[in-house]
Amino acid sequence: MNRPSIAGIHHLKFNVSDLDRSLAFYSVALGAKRIPELDHRLPDGELFAYILEIDRLGTYLELRASPAKAAREAGLDPVTFSVETHDDLVAWHDYLEANGIPHSPVFTGVTGWLLAAEDPDGRHLRFYTLETHPVTTAFSSDEYWLGV
What is the distance between the alpha carbons of residues 140 and 121, in angstroms, rounded to a whole number? Predict the structure, then answer.
């Protein structure tokens, strides 16, 4: 039997402890915009998820109210965003700094440069350059930000 195809990624889902706090964070950090008509509600009308659109992400981001799951995900780095160049990464560093968003320094990765930012639930969001340098084994390590 032939393997069926995948059409792409429909959406990403992050468990969060507080919908409004996370919406505020992702709005500032990534320019996310809530799509109210896609809010998820229980039959009794209780709101339990926001759907966000982020320019150039290529898919939606769902923020789902689930405090217990969000607590267990602290320290995870579930997604790495692409940025074009090292200079763009430095601009992200400066932007995060100016907006009081916890973040790492710029690190040297295996083939490019990266940094990580922390969302309100302690999840680490990575940014990695498409610009490359020669493959190196002298890449940065940091137990907190990189898990190594």
Answer: 24
35 vs 126: CA distance, rounded Å? 24
**And the tokens for 31?**
């320019």
Note down the domain range covering 88. Answer: 75-148
Q: Which residues contact 136 (CB under 8 A, 6 or more apart)?
A: 108, 110
Taking only the tens place, the pLDDT of each residue in 43-60 is 999 999 999 999 999 999
Residue 147 lies in a domain: yes
Q: DSSP letter for 4, please.
A: P
Indicate the residue among 73, 93, 112 that finishes a domain.
73
Determine the pLDDT at residue 92.
98
* Residue among 107, 116, 117 nearest 139 (CA): 107
SS3 at position 68? helix
Tell me: do 16 and 61 sit in the same domain: yes
Residues 6+ apart with CB under 8 A from 85: 129, 130, 131
pTM of the model: 0.93
